[in-house]
Amino acid sequence: MKLHPYTAVIRGLSRGASTGVVVAIFGSMSSGSMAAVGGTLVAVAVAALFGMGYEFLYYRRYDYELTTDSLDIASGVISRRVREIPLRRIQNVDVRQNPLHRLLGVAVLSIETAGGSSTEATLRYVSVDRARELQDALSEKSEHLTAVDAVGDDVEATAAGELLFELDRRELALTSALSIDPGVSAVGSFVALAFEGLLPRSAGIDPTRPIATIRGFAPIEIALGIAGVLAVAWLFSVVVVFNRYAGFRLRRVGDDLRYERGFLGSYTGTIPTDKVQTLTVTENPLKRRIGYATLSIETAGYAPGQSGGGAQTAIPIARRDRVMELVATIEGARIDETGFRRPPSRARRRYLVRYSLGIGVLAAVAFFADARTGAIGRWYLAFLGLGAVPIAAHLTWIHRGYQETDEHFVTRTGFWRRRTRIVPYDRIQTVVDRRTVFQRWRDLADVTADTASTSSLRGGDAVAIDVDADDADRLRSVLTRELLKRRGGSPSGDSIGEGSGADDRVGPQP
Amino acid sequence: MTEQNEERSGTDQQDDGPVTERDAESIGGARSLDPQVRLLWIGNSLVTAVFFGGLVGAASVLLLDWAAWPGAAAFVLLAVLGVVFAVLRYRIWTYEVRPEAVYIERGVLTRIRTIVPHVRIQHVDTQRGPLERALGLSRVVIYTAGSRQADVSIPGLHPDQATRLQNRLRDLAIESEGDDAV
Question: What is each CA distance from A137 to A3, A129, A144, in whole angstroms?
Answer without folding.
Answer: 17, 12, 10
